Amino acid sequence: MVAWRETISGAVQICFNEIHAKAQLQGSCYVTSITSSTPSVAQWFTQDANGSSNISATAVCDAGAKNLVAAGYLQGLLRFPNTALAVDRLQDRGQWLTRSESALMDNMHGTRLTSFSSGRYVAKHVQQCLALTPKPILQNGRLPIWPAGLVGSISHSKTYAAAVATTSLQALGVDIETPGRITEALQPRLFTAKERHRLRGLPDSAATVAFAAKEAGFKAISPIVGEYVSFLEAEIDLEWRNNLFTIRYIGNNKAIEAVHDGVGHWSYVGDEILVIFGF
């Protein structure tokens, strides 16, 4: 049963089979659906001059989040080489964690525990998608500590947990948000006057996209510069029709201007907005 079919750039078709274990090789895209209860994996391949295939992007999503791939998020991932994305519905995934990760949950309860275990669970998936043996993701304060040679980020909303990781990029951040959280009253605390002017000409969800874009950008740059970036020190330029954005830093720390080299992409996961930024 093919649940959807989409043509990207007029050349590559992606097919998703939501029930039966199946693999298809079409053009340069390989998609496999495992079962309705385990994650589905979609991978883009590129071919070198010798005809060898190399994974250039990978997405993993549970059956409930399959529209993440259907919405074309793999096309966005192609902007981030050797990068993997995983999304899962929030649930207690404590049984999948290592002893050292479980120890971090000793004082956690309720939704905090569920969010943490789901985040570590998808972090394991992105490592596997990059052909790595999953290692524990510990933390320094609230910041995840990724294994050597890997740059990554974790986020969660009330519904989903998401993780991204890369072996090629210097910085990478992800954020997932529920539309409607960013009210007009909040906007002066989050966006500059220039940003608020731009948002007036865009759909209501643009404020959530811009907020998530800042969060993803801050997650990408903070581990590098070791400091917090305030919301009014950065401006988001949304390329709305292409689901892309860039970040302009307007503060005084020259090191943070590295975000100018980055690009971000956003899409929907169910009713929520998922954003990735990297450079």
**Stretches with pLDDT under 50, minimum 5 residues:** 1-40, 42-49, 52-57, 61-72
Summing up helix and strand content along with how strands pair, one would put the structural category as alpha+beta
Fraction of residues in H or I helices: 10-25%
- In terms of DSSP E residues, the strand content is 35-45%
Query: Main sheet: which strands, in order across?
Result: 3-4-5-6-7-11-10
Number of helices, where a helix is a run of at least 4 consecutive DSSP H or I residues: 7
Order of helices and strands: EEEEEEHHEHHEEEEEHHHEEEE
- Secondary structure: number of strands: 16
Rg to the nearest angstrom?
18 Å
Rough outline: globular
Kindly report the average pLDDT value: 77
**What characterizes the major β-sheet?**
7 strands, mixed
Distance between the termini: 38 Å
Question: Could you characterize what this model shows?
Answer:
The protein has 279 residues and is of the alpha+beta class. It has seven helices and 16 strands. The strands form four sheets. It has a seven-stranded mixed sheet with strand order 3-4-5-6-7-11-10, with helices on both faces. A five-stranded antiparallel sheet has the order 12-16-15-14-13. A two-stranded antiparallel ribbon has the order 1-2. A hairpin with a 6-residue loop joins strand 4 and strand 5. The longest helix is centred in the middle third of the chain and has 20 residues. The relative contact order is 0.12.
